[in-house]
Specification:
It is a single chain. By secondary structure, the chain is of the alpha/beta class. It contains 4 helices and 6 strands, in the order ββαββαβαβα. Strands 1, 2, 3, 4, 5 and 6 form a 6-stranded mixed β-sheet that branches. Strand 5, helix 3 and strand 6 form a beta-alpha-beta unit. Helix 2 packs parallel to helix 3. The longest helix is centred in the first third of the chain and has 18 residues. The radius of gyration is 14 Å and the shape is globular. It starts with a strand and ends in a 13-residue tail after the last helix.
């Protein structure tokens, strides 16, 4: 698994583009490096383009994904757009991923369209996302 992490100056977004099969350990390291790049540039918007990545997470791993991001240091002021290839994840698994992320106090959303993912990142962040849930 390899990835590129870039800062887009005009948009104030950290873009991440992993490629190849992604293990659970890769997901943790990628999350930590992505956040570190954002903190270095004082940016809270992250676009993770996983269109060239084999999704490969189990239901249990999807359930733990918000906790991994939180443990890496992502907070409720951070916004993460995850851009997926619809062919890489089956419909019910995609719905499960979206549900898990919506119940989490982090601002993370799954997209298929890059422009919609970028537009969402540009919107004013919520004061606090779903504070009654802890993931």
């Amino acid at each position: 698994m390899k990835w590129e992490i870039n800062y887009v100056e005009g948009r104030r977004i950290v873009q991440v583009k992993p490629s190849g099969p992604m293990s659970w350990g890769d997901k943790k390291r990628l999350s930590e490096e992505t956040l570190a790049a954002g903190r270095k540039m004082n940016v809270n918007a992250f676009l993770v383009n996983q269109k060239e990545t084999a999704f490969g997470l189990s239901v249990l791993e999807i359930n733990r994904l918000p906790a991994v991001l939180r443990d890496a240091g992502f907070g409720y002021k951070d916004k993460v757009s995850i851009l997926l290839n619809p062919d890489s994840i089956k419909g019910s698994l995609l719905e499960f991923l979206q549900n898990i992320l919506s119940l989490c106090p982090l601002q993370i959303k799954v997209f298929i369209d890059r422009q919609k993912a970028t537009d969402w990142l540009k919107k004013k962040p919520l004061k606090r996302a779903n504070p009654m849930f802890d993931c």
